[in-house]
């Protein structure tokens, strides 16, 4: 230990947070040290004191207590005190600083400062820092960011859509997969990717109020995205402060109604800026040129100010083809400017579709097809080249060239880039639907009220007057009969209660058209039959509805039956049940599909039983037969159903609006419907939008799923997180079944560990486990806990230096090496996605005492395994003894790191060029044939390219960690 002298500056090895100490008294072997920054004083025995002398080297910048700094050029010692000579950092004038005048608050947290002042970290901390930097780099350069961490099964069509749309700049797309194929999940994956890659940070989800909690839960549980629900009450809280409520959160879920019914809220929402607006159940956005609905106008305004827009609907044509066009118009006003032209364009896609069909077929392409393909895009060298081998005998060559051409066709296809639609037929793997019709007698009471109804609406009955005949309880009540409620006369009530009682092991979802029917039925079941059922209708508050749904979902103690009204059940997930009762039938085949879609969705593991009670000789029998025999809408999805209905509507509604029905009346409609369906199917097959299908399903879904599975199987995340838990003092407890309980302890290195709750939590690194257990968090590279750990480690000084022993007899004892970890980074804003091109990039150097860099020959992992830890005191002694040499080597390292940075920067610039310039030129040439590519996309790309190159050019390199390694033979 050096001799002590009054005024010297030391730092405590065990209490470095005390700051710089000053020797204030020396009495024999006893030393008193004052730490002015914290006002603490400590007594030490001179030869065992855990203290390290603070010494600066040439080139260091040292702050004085008088608020100026010196750049050290020379060091002298007088009366045991260092005097630093050099230049004033601000004025450049000659200056000197005696160590007693060094700033007490000086932070010695740089790697070399800590190494030379005895603040030496453990070897495993150093290793953790290295691993964290490496994994963060790997993560940021992986193009599965935001996809691998979703707590979802890996379903190829969803992954394809999510990657395709999620990696665009400001995606504007219509997600219109058939009911229950996972549009919410696709939207979540897109949002997740956009947020994690920095493309988006402000997201607004608009939806029917009934779905707000379902979305809230899905976003949190599956994507760790914490949205806030906004209602009138929440907005009103900001009335006094005058703040715009929509600017108080980044991720907001809000019923569309809140905005469409309040001018003030709509204005506020439009005054906030949005990266992404999402509209669920977008078929409600009704539009006509003369009279756009309030909902449509509201979304139109938001669509104009938001960068990205996702519209979700399973039934895009539900309110007519014009409204479908109008929704596309929200996505891109320039492209979809006029309905007539849109219809014309649609027809012209047929030629491209025919070519696509030929390409996916087995046979050789005809000469005519080849010349058509050639002339479609005369300047496209890629197509030209691929066409040479399109009929090759070599199967692989043939397939590859066809894939290239198809990809080009999809790119140039009209709605291909804005519209995604998968059907059950194209996705497959769905359960069977069993149709169980039940014929019941029509009670006298109903017959008489039906007669009354028909008489009342004889002149030009409206659609709803006809629909009323399918809900005879409503007609009966409309006539009066307070003395005898309908459920006492309706045979469906008895039939259903018997059925439910006889089949206690199954859950039943009952759907009826009207809320009043649902309510009465529940009461009848409870009072008459002792059956507990939950109700679910639009008149209930959201909390009541969610409570009812949760009660029904509870497999152990929940109710067996849930009775829903039509509107109440829209978009809901009930696939844990497989018994559906259609208490009545809707006129619109799309509504029927929405009803069945509650159960027939992803996640349904069983076949579905659809029970259909109808009254013989009534409109309900005719309707059942038409739906079942005419368009087969129960056993299968029938996308053309609405079309058929519309074609037959006039006659069919007349036929239904009768007192008595026999097969003869409805039979011609059934025959005709079958013929229309056959014809439509044929037409659809011919004009089938094969490009839309191919684009929606994609060919990369399986490969993305495989790549994610590979990441799932790689155990390096588990090893890394265990290492973080160990170093930071987080308690881990194996819980079996791939689960782990992690809890904070009193000895944590940092008081707040990312995402860790005070009471601890159960986590799993296994996707399947997380999918089956709601209480378990799925920890992946995307998870905020892992991301938080990367940040926490990078921000802190943990592990930024170490001293190790290399027990190697082949090298002379005392030989030493200096390992230096640098990080090259740029301070570009997140939205430019610098991580894609130049994420914080670790550079490792391993210098021998002559300054040779051995890093390429001696890889980190193998070398690290050979090293042994050394106790803190010896470590500090070694660092002090070799300080001058190590300091010089750091200077050498700086030069090498700078050179390597140049290379890294050049490569990053090249990546920007290759990736963005290629993307840009592809879009530019496509724009000439496919107007759905927006100018704004091109401008954004160009800007991104220029700005990125600029920022990357300004990248810097920083020493992140240093390790001194000394050879020992002991
Ligand atoms: N990849 C997946 N992994 C696990 N569950 C999924 C996945 N995709 C969808 N699901 C589940 O399947 C159900 C249907 O998905 P979702 O609600 O996204 O469908 P949708 O197309 O939006 O339905 P709707 O047309 O009724 O609105 C939901 O319960 C959802 O959680």
TrEMBL record:
UniProt GO BP: regulation of DNA-templated transcription
Pfam assignment, any one: RapA_C
UniProt xrefs under PANTHER family: DNA ANNEALING HELICASE AND ENDONUCLEASE ZRANB3 FAMILY MEMBER (PTHR45766), SWI_SNF-RELATED MATRIX-ASSOCIATED ACTIN-DEPENDENT REGULATOR OF CHROMATIN SUBFAMILY A-LIKE PROTEIN 1 (PTHR45766:SF6)
Role description: Transcription regulator that activates transcription by stimulating RNA polymerase (RNAP) recycling in case of stress conditions such as supercoiled DNA or high salt concentrations. Probably acts by releasing the RNAP, when it is trapped or immobilized on tightly supercoiled DNA. Does not activate transcription on linear DNA. Probably not involved in DNA repair.
Family membership: Belongs to the SNF2/RAD54 helicase family. RapA subfamily.
EC number: 3.6.4.-
UniProt xrefs under InterPro entries: DEXDc_RapA, Helicase_ATP-bd, Helicase_C-like, Helicase_RapA, P-loop_NTPase, RapA_C, SNF2-like_sf, SNF2/RAD54-like_C
N-terminal signal peptide: none
Residue span(s) of domain Helicase C-terminal: 492-646
Motif DEAH box, residue numbers: 280-283
Subunit and interaction comment: Interacts with the RNAP. Has a higher affinity for the core RNAP than for the holoenzyme. Its ATPase activity is stimulated by binding to RNAP.
KW Metal-binding (keyword) present: no
All residue ranges annotated as the Helicase ATP-binding domain in the record: 164-334
Source organism: Saccharobesus litoralis
NCBIfam families: PRK04914.1
Residue sites binding ATP per the record: 177-184
Any GO MF annotation of the entry: ATP binding
Entry protein name: RNA polymerase-associated protein RapA
Keywords (A to Z) from UniProt: Activator, ATP-binding, DNA-binding, Helicase, Hydrolase, Nucleotide-binding, Transcription, Transcription regulation
SMART domains hit by this protein: DEXDc, HELICc
Top-level taxon of origin: Bacteria
Enzyme class (EC, first level): hydrolase
């Amino acid at each position: 230990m050096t001799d002590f002298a009054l005024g010297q500056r030391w730092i405590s090895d065990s209490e470095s947070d005390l700051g710089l100490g000053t020797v204030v008294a020396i009495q024999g072997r006893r030393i008193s040290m004052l730490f002015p920054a914290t006002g603490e004083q400590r007594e030490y025995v001179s030869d065992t004191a855990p203290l390290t002398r603070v010494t600066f080297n040439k080139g260091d910048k040292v702050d004085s207590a008088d608020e100026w700094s010196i750049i050290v050029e020379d060091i002298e010692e007088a009366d045991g005190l260092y005097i630093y000579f050099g230049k004033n950092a601000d004025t450049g004038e000659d200056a000197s600083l005696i160590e007693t005048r060094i700033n007490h608050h000086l932070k010695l947290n740089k790697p070399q400062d800590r190494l030379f002042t005895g603040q030496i970290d453990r070897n495993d901390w150093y290793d953790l820092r290295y691993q964290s930097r490496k994994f963060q780099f790997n993560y940021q350069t992986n193009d599965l960011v935001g996809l691998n961490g979703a707590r979802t099964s890996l379903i190829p069509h969803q992954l394809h859509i999510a990657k395709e749309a999620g990696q665009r700049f400001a995606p504007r797309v219509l997600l219109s997969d058939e009911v229950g194929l996972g549009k919410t999940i696709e939207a979540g994956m897109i949002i997740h990717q956009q947020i994690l890659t920095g493309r988006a940070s402000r997201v607004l989800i608009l939806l029917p109020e009934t779905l707000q909690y379902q979305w809230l839960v899905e976003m949190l549980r599956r994507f760790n995205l914490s949205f806030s629900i906004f209602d009138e009450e929440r907005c009103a809280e900001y009335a006094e402060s005058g703040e715009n409520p929509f600017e108080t959160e980044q991720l907001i879920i809000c019923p569309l109604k809140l905005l469409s019914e309040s001018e003030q809220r709509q204005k506020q929402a439009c005054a906030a800026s949005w990266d992404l607006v999402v509209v669920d159940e977008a078929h409600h956005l009704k539009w006509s040129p003369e009279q756009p609905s309030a909902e449509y106008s509201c979304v139109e305004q938001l669509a104009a100010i938001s960068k990205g827009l996702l519209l979700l609907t399973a039934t895009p044509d539900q309110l007519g083809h014009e409204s479908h066009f109008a929704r596309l118009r929200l996505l891109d006003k320039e492209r979809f400017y006029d309905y007539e032209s849109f219809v014309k364009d649609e027809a012209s896609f047929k030629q491209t579709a025919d070519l696509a069909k030929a390409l996916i077929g087995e046979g050789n392409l005809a000469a005519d097809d080849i010349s058509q393909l050639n002339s479609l895009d005369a300047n496209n060298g890629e197509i030209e080249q691929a066409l040479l081998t399109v009929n090759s005998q070599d199967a692989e060559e043939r397939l590859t060239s066809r894939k290239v051409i198809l990809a080009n066709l999809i790119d140039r296809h009209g709605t291909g880039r804005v519209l995604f639609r998968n059907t059950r037929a194209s996705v497959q793997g769905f359960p069977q639907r069993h149709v169980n019709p039940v014929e019941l007698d029509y009670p006298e009471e109903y017959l008489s009220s039906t007669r009354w109804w028909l008489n009342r609406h004889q002149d030009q009955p409206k659609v709803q007057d006809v629909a009323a005949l399918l809900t005879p309880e409503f007609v009966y009540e409309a006539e009066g009969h307070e003395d005898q409620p309908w459920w006492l006369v309706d045979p469906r009530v008895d039939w259903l209660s018997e059925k439910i009682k006889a089949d206690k092991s199954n859950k039943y979802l009952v759907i009826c058209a009207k809320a009043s029917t649902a309510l009465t039925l529940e009461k009848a079941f409870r009072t008459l039959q002792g059956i507990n059922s939950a109700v679910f209708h639009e008149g209930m508050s959201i909390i009541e509805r969610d409570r009812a749904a949760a009660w029904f979902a509870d497999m152990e103690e929940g109710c067996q039956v849930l009775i829903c009204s039509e509107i109440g059940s829209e978009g809901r997930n009930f696939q844990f049940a497989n018994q559906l009762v259609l208490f009545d039938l809707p006129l619109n085949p799309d509504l029927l599909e929405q009803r069945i879609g509650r159960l027939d969705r992803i996640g349904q593991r069983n076949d579905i039983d659809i029970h259909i009670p109808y009254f013989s000789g009534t409109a309900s029998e005719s309707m059942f037969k038409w739906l079942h025999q005419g368009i087969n809408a129960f056993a299968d999805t029938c996308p053309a159903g609405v079309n058929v209905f519309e074609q037959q509507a006039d006659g069919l509604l007349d036929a239904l609006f009768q007192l008595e029905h026999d097969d003869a009346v409805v039979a011609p409609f059934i025959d005709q419907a079958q013929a229309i369906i056959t014809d439509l199917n044929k037409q659809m097959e011919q004009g089938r939008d094969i490009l839309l299908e191919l684009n929606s399903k994609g060919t990369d879904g399986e490969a993305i799923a495989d790549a994610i599975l590979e990441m799932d199987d790689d155990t390096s995340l588990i090893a890394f997180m265990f290492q973080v838990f160990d170093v930071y003092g987080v308690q881990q407890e194996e819980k079996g079944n791939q689960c782990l309980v992690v809890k904070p302890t009193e000895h944590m290195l940092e008081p707040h560990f990312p995402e860790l709750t005070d009471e601890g939590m159960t986590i799993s690194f296994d996707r399947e486990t997380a999918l089956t257990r709601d209480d378990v968090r799925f920890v992946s590279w995307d998870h905020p806990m892992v991301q938080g750990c990367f940040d926490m480690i990078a921000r802190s000084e943990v592990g930024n230096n170490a001293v190790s022993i290399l027990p190697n007899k082949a090298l002379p004892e005392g030989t030493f090496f200096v390992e230096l970890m640098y990080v090259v980074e740029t301070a570009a804003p997140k939205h430019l996605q610098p991580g894609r091109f130049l994420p914080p990039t670790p550079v490792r150097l391993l210098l021998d005492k002559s300054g040779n860099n051995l890093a390429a020959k001696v890889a980190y992992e193998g070398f690290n395994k050979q090293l042994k830890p050394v106790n803190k005191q010896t470590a500090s002694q070694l660092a002090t003894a070799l300080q001058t040499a190590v300091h010089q080597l750091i200077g050498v390292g700086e030069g090498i790191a700078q050179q390597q940075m140049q290379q890294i920067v050049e490569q990053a610039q090249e990546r920007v060029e290759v990736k963005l310039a290629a993307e840009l030129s592809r879009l530019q040439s496509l724009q000439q044939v496919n107007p759905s590519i927006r100018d704004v996309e091109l401008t954004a790309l160009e800007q991104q390219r220029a700005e990125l190159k600029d920022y990357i050019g300004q990248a810097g390199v920083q020493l992140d960690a240093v390790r001194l390694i000394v050879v020992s033979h002991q």
